[in-house]
Amino acid sequence: MNWTIALAAILHREALRFVGQRGRFVAALVRPLVWLFVFAAGFRAALGLSITPPYQTYITYETYIVPGLCGMILLFNGMQSSLSLVYDREMGSMRLLLTAPLPRWWLLFCKLLAGTLVSLLQCAAFLAIAALWGIRLPLSGYLLALPALALSGLMLGALGLMLSSFIRQLENFAGVMNFVIFPMFFLSSALYPLWKMAEASPRLRDLCNLNPFTHAVELIRFALYGQVNLTAALWVSLALAGFGAAALWGYDPARGVQNRKGQGG
Amino acid sequence: MKRLALLLLTVALPLHAGEIWVTNEKDDTISVIDTDTLEVVRTIPTGERPRGITFSKDFSRVYICASDSDTVQVMDPDTGAILFDLPSGEDPEQFVLAPDDRHIYIANEDDAVTTVVDTQTRQVVAQINVGIEPEGMAISPDGKIAITTSETTNMAHWIDTASHSLFANTLVDSRPRHAEFTADGTTLWVSSEIGGTITVFNVADQTEIGKIRFAITGVNADLVQPVGFKFNPEGTKAFVALGPSNHVAVVNMQSLSVEKYILVGRRVWHMAFSPDNSQLFTTNGVSGDVTVIDVAREEAVKSIKVGRFPWGAAMRPTKSN
Fold first, then answer.
1. What Pfam family is a match for this entry (chain B) (predicted)?
2. Distance CA A66, CA A71 (A)
3. Is A33 exposed, middle or buried (0-12, 13-18, 19+ CB in 10 A)?
4. Alpha carbon distance A80, A83 (integer Å)
5. How far is B312 from B137, CA to CA, in rounded Å?
6. DSSP string covering A95-108, please?
7. B128 forms bridges with which residues in the sheet?
8. Minimal CA–CA distance to B228: which of B240, B213, B236, B210?
9. ipTM > 0.85?
10. From CA B127, how far away is CA B148, in angstroms rounded?
11. What is the DSSP-derived secondary structure letter of residue A36?
12. How far is CA B254 from each of CA A148, A211, B20, B235, rounded to the nearest angstrom?
């Protein structure tokens, strides 16, 4: 019973924050839309990109970039919701949350779930605008992409949780932008197919292949066209388990950052 | 009651199964695509550099322009065996089968003539002098007028099929490649590859009705080269292959305006409809594949790998009830 109360409370808080910070919602939407309307326009590839699975025919660059931009929303949102955890810690509201008489993993999972739901809403809004712009996907794809988006959102949220457990101050978060978000986004198949990367350097391609964000994007890309990319699904799940475990470890009062903080202070 | 049951049965059966036959210029083969599975089901060897391809009315024979073998081959489509070769004059590129199902009109690119061949006696009936580098061939639905377009003279030559003589020559834009009459026989469309236009003529007095121009956002105008085109059976829309611009244009046949451009493979040449006209198959020369367009939605759905440099396309129904 208490478990659902905690879940409801955390979801409610996230929802309040979502409603209260409408600017944040707009900002999160504007970012991928700028990429779609401006960046993709520059690389329009009016003569068509080569066929790579799951595409069955030639596509324009705008069409290619859409799943990657969904991934971008999930990535930024995952980081942002963990940023709010760092803020909570500084403000002291986290102490209240973590003293709830429930397993810590459940509390963290609730937080993760709440963040992912917000991401899904933003993805839906983004896909709707892209469809109005003329980039339409198979109708079934929109439904089938839901589990892929949710799994990827959880994975990237878990990454954020993990990072937030190791970051003590809000100011350090700028470093996360530089050292996590940008490399993850650019070293992936979000903006260019991996064979194109291999043309520049096979090593770069291998690096992209190791990046869990690449697999999240590919998972979403295949799902949008009604296909399951098992390799990508496996990689994303593994990454979710890994980041989740690390976050738990980080938030464990006996070992994690809380303890270290105590020692430091 | 029985009739109703029969009707239901007919509805349940795949009425419109068919094949698209594609000539591969560089491979000297034909790729046969099943219109249901959208896969290549057969590959058949032909003479050298096959280009134009057309079936007889009952689909029991297929005629193939083997350009570098200087002949028109006649094949049994079931076995793939060459039944006989027809005399064709040098370098036949495109041809058209007359509505009588007997005479074919062949454009001989190197000789500046149009050759008329009787497929029953296998004899040349006539050779008509036309402009330099004849290429496009068309015949009116009533079989009275044949058209040859000449690439270098930039003209459409109007041939009276009864007397085998020219009765009109009309100028079009640079390098006309393909000509076709609308189903009602009242207008003639001629595409100009370099000029980048399609000229529409009134057949009754051979005057120009209008011109269609094409422009694709982000594609250099030089690349927009209209070649093959097809009319939908309703006579409302024309699908125009735009060569190295990798697009097919959808043209409103009443207003002669372009409604949409559909992205397909590299260097699109010619097209064929599926038996139920719901799909359109485009041959993409440089990318070596065939793109399938959903006609109702006007969207490309799939590209199928075929041989090297696919050029011509023709449809054959496989199951008829």
1. YNCE
2. 9
3. middle
4. 5
5. 13
6. HHHHTSSS-HHHHH
7. B114
8. B240
9. no
10. 12
11. I
12. 46, 54, 29, 9
Sheet arrangement for strand B40-45: B40-45, B29-34, B18-24, B310-317
| Cα–Cα distance for residue pair B132/B150, rounded to 1 Å | 6
For the stretch B21-44, pLDDT in tens is 999 999 999 999 999 999 999 999
**pLDDT for A211-250, tens place per residue?**
999 999 999 999 999 999 999 999 999 999 999 999 888 8
Please indicate if any CB of chain A lies within 8 Å of the CB of B245: yes
pLDDT confidence band for A254 (50 / 70 / 90): low
Helix (H) or strand (E) holding A34: helix A22-34
Q: A51: which DSSP letter?
A: P
Inter-chain contact B266–A57, Cβ cutoff 8 Å? no
Asked if residues B267 and B308 have their Cβ atoms less than 8 Å apart, the reply is: no
Looking at the complex, does the CB of residue A133 fall below 8 Å from at least one CB of chain B?
no
Helix H or strand E segment including B305: strand B299-305
CA distance A39 to A62: 9
Predicted TM-score (pTM) of the model is 0.85
Six-digit token string for A180: 């996590």
Residue-wise DSSP of B251-291: EETTTTEEEEEEE-SSSEEEEEE-TTSSEEEEEETTTTEEE
Q: Residue A39, Cα to own-chain centre: how many angstroms?
A: 21
Nearest to A56 among B219, B266, B303 (CB): B303
Q: Which residue has the tokens 């003589």?
A: B165
Interchain pair A56, B302: CB under 8 A: yes
Query: Cβ contact (<8 Å) for A48 and B292?
Result: no
- Helix, strand, coil shares of chain A, percent, nearest 5, are 80, 0, 20
Give contacts of B291 with chain A, Cβ < 8 Å. 57-58
Per-residue tokens: B134: 């004849």
Burial group, residue A30, by CB count within 10 angstroms (0-12, 13-18, 19+): exposed
State whether A44 and B218 contact (CB < 8 Å): yes
- At B252-297, the pLDDT tens digits run 999 999 999 999 999 999 999 999 999 999 999 999 999 999 999 9
> Please, which residues bridge with residue B245 across strands?
none
Q: For residue A53, which residues of chain B lie inside 8 Å, CB to CB?
A: none
- Rounded distance between C-alpha atoms, residue A209 and residue A52, angstroms: 16
List the structure tokens of B230. Answer: 């097809």
Contact B319, B302 (CB under 8 A): no
Q: Measured between alpha carbons, how far is A152 from A150 in angstroms, rounded to an integer?
A: 5
- Any chain B CB within 8 A of the CB of A139? no
Q: Which residues of B touch A57 (CB under 8 A)?
A: 263-265, 291-292, 300-303
Which residue ranges form the domains of chain B, and what is each CATH number? Answer: 18-317 (2.130.10.10)
Average pLDDT of the residues in B300-315: 95
- Backbone phi, then psi, for A228, in 5-degree steps? -105, 125
